[in-house]
Amino acid sequence: MARAAVASEAAGVPSVSIVCESFDGQAIATARGFGFEGLPLAVTVGHVDAQSASDMESNFVDHTVDAIVAGLTGASAARNGTNGTASPGDRDMGESTALGPYDTAISGSVDEINDAFAERGWSDGLPIVPPTRDRVERFLTGTGLDPQQSLGIARTTGRDMTVWSVATNAVMAGCEPRHLGVLLAAARILADPHYGAEHSGNTTGADALMILDGPSAAGLGFNSGVGALRDGVRANTSVGRWLRLYQRNVFGFTAAEHDKSTFGNSFRVVLCEDAAALADIGWDPVSAEFGFGRNDDVLTMARFNSGAIVGSAFGSTPHEIVPYLADGLARITGWDLGHLYGLGRMHYRPLLVLSPILARTCAAAGWTKANLAEALFEHARIPAWRFEKLIGEWTNLAAGRPRLTDVVAAGDLPSQFAASDDPDRLVPIVSEPAKFVIAVAGDANRTNAYVFSHDGPHGDYTAQAVERFGYG
């Protein structure tokens, strides 16, 4: 809403952003990022999904209408000629506004610096490595990069995403200089409008997962085997931590600004695919779905709401294990179906991470990833009535509580969602087999899998090549 209001104000048309309680800070921060202070707001009382129609109408008339009228008819800082004149990259927020990129913000002992960073909201609550100028410069030594090279603009704050800011947060997170190529790829993904980094603080608390592919991954110290999704390996863990710090310090994802997650999750470590296993069975990595080759070093990123283990799959053929894998994908998928219809249009792409032994079982039968996806499409299904409740009754994500038959008739979902009007008929959880994303990692000798529910266009799959800088 604030982004639309910014566009309206920039065109000289008065606007008011109507926001729910507790979202006023996020709206103010978003407008500030686009160069507008004092954007007129009108706050609604309570949550719209937890009120009766009469209560909502009464609250709106008593508390919101006057603010709308005042915002449209009165003067505001956003219209006084002092806003919108500076480029977004020149703007910053908080105490760091007066500091240049090479200025000293804090001096003192390691303990004093950590305490100060925590108090100012610059750390994630864990001890950080103080990002002294010397440490950051050494991190970039030999790369030939201009420290002030811009990688894009943070759409939430208007801050310039520089090589220096990437390196500063990398030092804080404990990354090694050889990880810089991966970090720069992640920063470019955050800057890509297709990814939609501005949605990273949405209320459901979905979090990004970085998937690393390519021949250099092992040489860079990334783990693709036992504990592939667990912290404990420096490369996987520190790069995952860097992402959360960078979102906090450059994108403003704190509770006071853009992070509105109801519960949230801990940061996710980098998932590194098992390149050797993929090569051995002749399967392409995840990055191949986004235009890259098997020998390319690539980082792919997307945001996921929930994850769950599919433990101890039993069977010596893909036909025996697919029903269990599909059941896991169906179980992990709930309100996320709003990204199939409602919040998005056929954007939903759940992720299945197979242990190498399960992938080999499929490959040994002559199955490609495409064959596996087709089988999952047939088995990962839920009753139509449950789909309809998840998008239009239990979660209110599609206006008018539509029936799937009506959605198909309107051309918004494929025909298989309306094969009949039986409410108990089984319907897919994705629009087509190719929507399943399949990765291979983890303990080579365990028959386990992991499933993730995708946050759709609120963090869509986006891939970037990883520069090597002589490492790996």
Specify the number of helices: 14
Q: What fraction of the residues are assigned to beta strands by DSSP? A: 5-15%
Low-confidence stretches: 81-96
Can you write the helix and strand succession as a string? HEHEHHHEEHHEHEHEHEHHEHHEEEE
Largest sheet: 7 strands, mixed
The count of strands amounts to 13
Write down the overall mean pLDDT.
90
Query: Gap between N and C termini, in Å?
Result: 44 Å
Structural class: alpha/beta
How would you describe this structure in keywords?
7-stranded mixed β-sheet, two-stranded parallel ribbon, alpha/beta, 472 residues
Could you characterize the architecture of this molecule?
- The protein has 472 residues and is α/β, with parallel strands linked by helices.
- Among the domains are: 2-79, no CATH class; 204-216 and 266-465, no CATH class.
- It has 14 helices and 13 strands.
- The strands form 4 sheets. Strands 5, 6, 7, 8, 11, 12 and 13 form a 7-stranded mixed sheet that branches. A two-stranded parallel sheet has the order 1-2. Strands 3-4 form a two-stranded antiparallel sheet.
- A hairpin with a 6-residue loop joins β3 (150-153) and β4.
- The longest helix is centred in the first third of the chain and has 21 residues, at 53-73.
- The protein is flat.
